[in-house]
């Protein structure tokens, strides 16, 4: 019985470790507005244009009552969407199915419970994702100095 319990414990632990392999997140020492502005500036410093900013936190707040949700998840939460024509071309020439990685996104959010601000992005898979991950990492590093 102990072995079965240990097996399921290890399986559950492994699952939670693997679940975080697909995203990268970094705490910011600054507040939400300053962090968001720093991410925007870092994107623009790379010569990239922001296509859209999704105000995810506002949407969740607005729809909470309709969904029967009582807990507020974020003080603020936005997803910044942008693209690079040259990097997108390079990625899709390597693998045309990598179209799903475009546009690129970086999330900036402050958790309601802790007040801590985070910057996060999805870790792109595959060979062609290495250049995109470097770009995303460089943007976040520049924004959170």
From TrEMBL:
- A Pfam family of the record is DUF302
Keywords in alphabetical order: Signal
| InterPro entries (UniProt xref) | DUF302, TT1751-like_sf
Location of the DUF302 domain: 74-124
Signal peptide start-end: 1-19
Q: What is this protein called?
A: DUF302 domain-containing protein
Q: Which Gene3D superfamilies match?
A: TT1751-like domain
């Amino acid at each position: 019985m102990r072995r079965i319990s240990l097996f399921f414990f290890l399986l559950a632990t492994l699952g939670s470790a693997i679940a975080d392999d697909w995203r990268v997140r970094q705490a910011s020492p600054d507040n939400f507005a300053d962090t968001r502005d720093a991410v925007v500036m870092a994107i623009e410093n790379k010569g990239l244009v922001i296509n859209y900013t999704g105000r995810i936190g506002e949407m969740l707040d607005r729809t909470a009552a309709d969904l029967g949700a009582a807990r507020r998840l974020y003080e603020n939460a936005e997803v910044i969407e942008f693209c690079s024509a040259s990097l997108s071309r390079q990625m899709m020439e390597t693998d045309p199915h990598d179209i799903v990685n475009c546009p690129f996104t970086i999330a900036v959010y402050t958790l309601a419970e802790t007040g801590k601000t985070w910057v996060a992005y999805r870790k792109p898979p595959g060979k062609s994702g290495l250049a995109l991950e470097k770009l995303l990492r460089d943007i976040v590093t520049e924004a959170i100095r």
